[in-house]
Write a structure and sequence with these properties.
single chain; mainly alpha; 2 domains; 10 helices; 75% helix
């Protein structure tokens, strides 16, 4: 009797974070979010069908079908499909049509609910709240060295903002290239950013210059500016990632701890 294949909580959480980060990473008008879904499932597919090449290919093929929904509320759908894939891998009579039917039937309703709540309600409310605070100058007013409490708050805010920016620069390339836990990815992104501080600062300058051009000089530059920044930063990141790749050869594909 074949050994039963079961997904662990770690497998599901890893798929959730990959979907959250990469659902729109290769967004295109032929398949929309399909490639992001397959990427979030890559370790799942290997675990469930790694010993059967035909089922492995079939699983990738069925999830490369057109798929589009709101990624936050609609994240329920990949979870449902994971359960169906798990049952299928253990012999349940679940067809390709059944799996794709669930995705197709749910993606529209969840997109409607998610777009209404997230983009149509929550985002405008938070944006309006932030604009009011920004115009009023409330945050900047207190970010002064008027007493010990606000001095500490300012210091914590500045450090947190710098750490967030560094992680944001490195986390996506690391997630796309290496297999590791989400926590380790965040930690390594921060440590790599600090270790290669010159490269980190140069990438920040690239984005700042492009922002300055868009805001002050030529607003339509935003059309190609983001892509240009990504291209320049990818050139800087390639050598760092290659170095990390070399150091992972003896670590079973995990990103080394670069403390």
């Amino acid at each position: 009797m074949a050994e039963e294949k079961r997904l662990s909580k770690k497998d599901v959480v890893k798929a959730f974070w990959r979907w959250t980060f990469f659902s729109h990473a290769n967004y295109n008008y032929e398949r929309l979010e399909a490639t992001g879904l397959v990427h979030s499932y890559k370790h799942i597919i290997k675990k469930l069908y790694g010993d059967d090449s035909e089922e492995y290919r079939a699983c990738i093929k069925r999830h490369m079908q057109f798929f589009n929904t709101e990624p936050h509320i609609g994240g329920v759908i990949p979870g449902i499909v994971l359960a169906m894939e798990e049952e299928r891998a253990n012999g349940a009579p679940i067809t390709d049509e059944a799996i794709n039917g669930v995705k197709t039937g749910l993606m529209g309703p969840f997109a409607g609910i998610g777009d209404t709540l997230w983009q149509g309600t929550l985002t405008p409310i938070l944006l309006a709240f932030g604009i009011i605070l920004g115009i009023d100058g409330y945050v900047l007013y207190h970010m002064r060295f008027e007493n010990v409490f606000w001095t500490l708050c300012t210091a914590v805010f500045c450090v947190a903002a710098a750490a967030y920016a560094i992680i944001l620069m490195y986390i996506f390339p690391l997630l796309a290239r290496f297999d590791n836990t989400i926590g380790a990815m965040f930690k390594n992104a921060l440590f790599i950013g600090v270790r290669f501080l010159f490269c980190t600062a140069l990438m920040a300058v690239i984005y700042f210059v492009m922002l300055l051009i868009v805001v002050r000089i030529f607003t339509p530059a935003v059309i190609f500016g983001e892509g240009l920044c990504a291209l320049l930063c990818s050139c800087l990141l390639s050598n760092i990632l290659n170095l990390c790749q070399e150091k992972t050869e003896d670590h079973a594909g995990t990103v080394p701890d670069l403390q």
